[in-house]
Amino acid sequence: MNGVLIVDKPAGPTSHDVVDRVRKILQQGSVGHLGTLDPSATGVLPLVIGNLTRLAQFYLSAEKTYEGVIRFGFATDTYDAEGEPSGPAQKVTLTLAQVREMASRFCGVIEQMPPPFSAKKIQGVPAYKLARKRAPVLLQPVQVEIRELEILQVEGERATFRARVASGTYMRSVAHDMGQRMGCGAHLESLRRTAAGEFEISDAHGLEEIAQAAKRGEISGVFLHPRKLLPQFPSVTASEEAAAHIRNGRAVNLPEFSGAKLVKVFYGQSELIAIASRVAGTLFQPKIVLAAEPVSQLPNGQHM
Question: Rounded to two decimals, what is the model's pTM?
Fold first, then answer.
């Protein structure tokens, strides 16, 4: 079974918990995710299944879009609502203009300190394991890019925002740092990822919906259509002869894409069989082979 499944992750489970649940639902061992979400966060969690786990390398720097709420008045040790307050709560009076001005200082390429409760490793040990033991967490600042940080509303001590960020950006750190600069402390109260790369919340399905579709034998109906994957690469539909060569790792000529460096190669409308790279002229070599042999046709015309 090969495919891409966009899960609308609920608050509570880790991203790995979701992967494990989907493995059991699909009875498929080869399942991975394309970007971790914190346990308390919800929203878009793309999963790659079967041979399509090989596509993960193309999503290492995928842009993320979030919506969430920052609560001002006190910081926490985890930088979110799950942690312990770092001090007593302060009474704060915020204005929309004030918070928007502060948010503008975080836009662009900035240096950001990752949260102590994060998966960043210190001499091979995840920071959160050290933080839980109250051991020193000596992280180094990293360069991140915040492409958009819009404050939508301010109500009391809470500010609702929307953000577009480059991969590796911690919105928990943004909330914490804003509170530090304003002198009142702050933490990320809630976070929902609405997009990751080309994957949007409108493509997502809840775990129960996925389980029910699998039970009915209709799991292909919740898979993302492969033509939506990696939109930055042109798509080409291979002939039966060319597809056979590609499945065996052999180079083929794709004249209509002589200018492209990488292309997605399909057999039929929905079977993604390879990502191919241009060798020279119109000659393309499979970079990743995703289907080594023809697969059976499903009743609805899709392949798995």
Answer: 0.87
